[in-house]
Amino acid sequence: MIRVLLADDQPLVRAGVRALVERDGDIEVVAEASDGRAALVELDRFRPDVLLLDLQMPVLDGLDVLRELERRRTDVSGRRHVDTRVVVLTTFGEDDNVFGALRSGAAGFLLKDAGPGELREAVRTVAAGEALLSPGVTRRVVERLVEVEPSPGADRRLEGITDREREVLALVGRGMTNQEIGAELHLSPATARTHVGRLLTKLGVRDRVGLVVVAYESGLIRPGS
C-alpha cells in the first residue's frame, strides 16, 4: 500500500484527488493538510511515501515546505524524511515557481487537470523511486516557465563528464526516457540507463529531476530547445 499525504488549501480539490487516487485500492491517503505548516506536522506524524503538494498555500507555501524538507534531509541531528517523495500539483501557466520546486527537491510535478489514470500512475512512479518526467508534461511546463541564464562558470559542473554523457544529459533534460535516449543515440536502453546512473553519481544529484535542473542551469539546453 502506497501511503499519501495530500496538501492543498482547496477542500474540493483534496476530496477529488483522494477519490481518484484511492480507486484501485493500492494507494491510501493517510492525511490531508490545508496549509504548509500543517503539511509538515502531518509529515512528522505519518511519514508517508508520497506528498502531493500544492505550491499556492497559506501560512507556508509549497516552496517553503520543500526547502524545510531539504533542510531536514541534510541535518543529521533533526527529523528526516528521506523516503518521502514530493509531487507538486500545479495549474499550467499559473505557478511561476515550478522550476524552483524541482531545484528544491521535488520528484516531479503534475498538472491539476491530469486524467485519473495519470494521477495514480504519478503516485506509483515516484513511490517506486523514479522521477516524474514525462515529455508531454514536464518538458512543456519547464520550457514555458523557465528562463534560465547560465551563471558565469556554470558549465564547469560538466567538466568531469564525457562527451557521450553530455549527450545523454541533454536528452534527459528534454524529458526523454532511457528507451528514447537509446533510440536517439543508437544505444540499448540498458546502456542509456548506465550512462544516466553515472551522471547521477558524477553530478551529485538524487534523480532525473536533478539532471534536468543541471542541464538547464549549465546552459546545456535552453527553453524551447
Q: How would you describe this protein?
A:
It is a single chain. The protein has 225 residues and is α/β, with parallel strands linked by helices. The protein contains ten helices and five strands, in the order βαβαβαβαβαααααα. It has helices spanning 11-21, 36-46, 62-74, 98-103, 116-127, 135-145, 163-173, 178-185, 189-203, 208-217, and strands at 2-7, 27-33, 50-54, 85-90, 108-111. A five-stranded parallel β-sheet has the order 2-1-3-4-5, sandwiched between helices. β4, α4 (98-103) and β5 (108-111) form a beta-alpha-beta unit. α2 runs parallel beside α3 (62-74), α7 (163-173) packs across α10 (208-217) and α8 packs across α9.
Quick overview of this protein structure:
The protein is α/β, with parallel strands linked by helices.
Number of strands: 5
Identify low-pLDDT runs: none
Helix content: 40-55%
Distance N terminus to C terminus? 39 Å
Radius of gyration: 17 Å
Helical element count?
A: 10
Give the H and E element order: EHEHEHEHEHHHHHH
Spatial sequence of strands, sheet with the most strands = 2-1-3-4-5
Major sheet details = 5 strands, parallel
Shape: globular
Class from secondary-structure proportions:
alpha/beta
SS strand fraction: 5-15%
Mean pLDDT: 82
Task: Identify the notable features of this structure and list them briefly.
single chain; 225 residues; alpha/beta; 5-stranded parallel sheet; 48% helix; globular
